[in-house]
């Protein structure tokens, strides 16, 4: 085998690897990527019950209610336009609070409650997730109206 | 005065970078030879001045000089001293100055230590390094000036994000940055060698220790970051496939591929264009990572404050450097002489497969990280999480591990497979035993953790196979390094598999006096008491973990940091860890739970028993240690020492 041929084979192998990776990646992305939804989108019927999803919103004021088992909470996530009840069993992150942004991983239940497996709060008060830009203001406006 | 001096030093250092670049270009275009002798000292001076500027920024934080905007926004006079110092790089501007300092110091180190390269290649390399730093000087001075003064100094600062108030902040970012930015050296070497067309074994041998060096720091940085996230976030996970973790993993994968391909180029003078390409990709991925993290595209503790102008600036810099290097590569790739031939069953062949797998994993992780950003630009908000990465990267990584242990048993150029046939069956047997035991006694175990542990068994035995039948005292240091690093992969993999497969979790609201059972432990919750730290107050829980007649006290905390200068108060959880030979017990104290009478009579507790979890970080440490041994061997310090000793011995016999 000539060195030139060997180079060609190596290049083809590399190309094949990249193409294979592309196909593998694309199919896995189609199966595994979770959509990010706002309460408004869910109310508009964009969420499929039982499908993994990410919900972003503000925790509505005075909405956090603890269940009697001591480890389950129910609260309302809002984007100023719509509200979705959220149920979560576990210890909420350090920066989770009412009137503050949060992102929950989980799925919609048929009764319209979002069941979260994991809750992320924004990491510091200077930072706002890009997906929730403008939400602070919208909520403040909504609060001012009522 | 200190802030003004710091800014002045940055300007002078930038001017020196400019000088190195211009002098280098004129010299390479056939200008006077004297210009070449300018480049080395200019690079060293640039490194010294940038380091001094960074030192001055630390001084500003230590003195809590609130007239400086950065200090006022990110520090507070009440903070413990260690966090005042570490707080210097716990923000955007400070961390970019740290980045730039390491970039400049890398240039200075090349200028001081690199003696193996041809002079014109060295000048081209240093000029490339200067060109890199020039862009980041501009970024720092024009868009992220850390020395900016406030018109009116506030009485005190806003403090540091409490999550970052941990000893981890002192070590994790600098270590990771040394690795991240250290890859710039390989990038500059590649550019330099492309310019002067000196691509061959000599160039590869010169580049090798630098690649190993930065990869060691990347490994340590990622390992430390993983442990930090593990105990600081209180989620009990050691890897989240968070985009920020991914952008540290991507350059690490590129570095791993590069240090193996550079071995082929150095030893066998093959894979030359590929090695150069990987050297360009490595630092390009560091820059992509910095861009993703710092442009505010992501939600993360690492993203600090968002400023679109900075994102655009970084994007432009990245486009210039990566685009420039790739264009140069495209222009010169054709002139790179063909490498030496080899059979598919050979050391080179296995390293080619290693490189293909590593770059494929790299591409898949990059795809998953970038996809949400691209999707968002097209109006769809998507998140890509662990299920994707485990599915695509997991199986490939396991195949990679098997190739990894076969490679060292093959000879260069071509191999008849005799060593493979004689040594691998024992390793395969070890893997099969692990697999059978797990299937019989392991209960319900996921397929990936199951295969992970079996492969760990194979790798643990096979990674030692290169030492069989060897005189261990005469085994060269790089061989030891390779064996230890590959063995570290087995340790790490075993930890990951065992933790995923056999983790035990309990989530309860417990009243004082209650006992919770998790794994083999009976954990008695004794109660809580308030305590005061230097700049926080906390509720400290006391638990007694009992197992096998022994009891251990564990004290998790829930800390409350007061809001400083108008910022909101924040809480953090400090997990309590109990390390045992078989794993770790991990306890988090959650919120108080009010009873019917409105009094807090119970507390949320989350307990995990994590079998072998600490093996993950031990493995990471072993990988870094092995790489360090290899680097020492490659830098030929030991060879020199041995030669000297041999000469002495000869003298004695005469």
What do you see in this structure?
The complex is a heterodimer of chains A (146) and B (654). With 146 residues, chain A is an alpha+beta fold. Chain A has two domains: 1-33; 35-145, Beta Barrel (OB fold (Dihydrolipoamide Acetyltransferase, E2P)). Chain A is 32% helix and 29% strand. A five-stranded mixed β-barrel of chain A has the order 2-4-5-7-6. In chain A, β1, α2 (39-43) and β2 form a beta-alpha-beta unit. The N and C termini of chain A lie far apart (81 Å). Chain B has 654 residues and is α+β, with helices and mostly antiparallel strands. Among the domains of chain B are: 1-158, Four Helix Bundle (Hemerythrin (Met), subunit A) (Up-down Bundle), CATH 1.20.120; 504-614, no CATH class. In chain B, 62% of the residues lie in helices and 12% in strands. In chain B, the strands form two sheets. In chain B, strands 3, 4, 5, 6, 7 and 8 form a six-stranded antiparallel beta sheet that branches. Chain B is globular. The model of chain B has no long low-confidence stretch (mean pLDDT 87). At the A-B interface, α1 and β1 of A face α12, β1, α13, β2 and β8 of B.
List strands and helices in order, with pairings.
The complex is a heterodimer of chains A (146) and B (654).
Chain A: H1 3-32, E1 34-37, H2 39-43, E2 53-59, E3 65-66, E4 72-78, E5 83-89, E6 101-108, E7 114-121, H3 135-145
Parallel strand pairs in A: 1-2, 5-7
Antiparallel strand pairs in A: 2-4, 2-6, 3-4, 4-5, 6-7
Chain B: H1 2-28, H2 34-62, H3 69-74, H4 81-86, H5 92-113, H6 119-143, H7 167-196, H8 201-232, H9 243-268, H10 272-294, H11 308-333, H12 347-377, E1 382-383, H13 386-406, H14 418-441, H15 447-462, H16 477-502, E2 504-510, E3 515-518, E4 521-532, E5 537-547, E6 550-554, E7 557-561, E8 570-574, E9 576-580, E10 583-594, E11 600-611, H17 614-634, H18 637-653
Antiparallel strand pairs in B: 2-11, 3-4, 4-5, 5-6, 5-7, 7-8, 9-10, 10-11
Helix pairs in contact in B: 1-2, 1-6, 2-5, 2-6, 5-6, 5-7, 6-7, 6-11, 7-8, 7-10, 8-9, 8-17, 9-10, 9-12, 10-11, 12-13, 13-15, 14-15, 15-16, 16-17
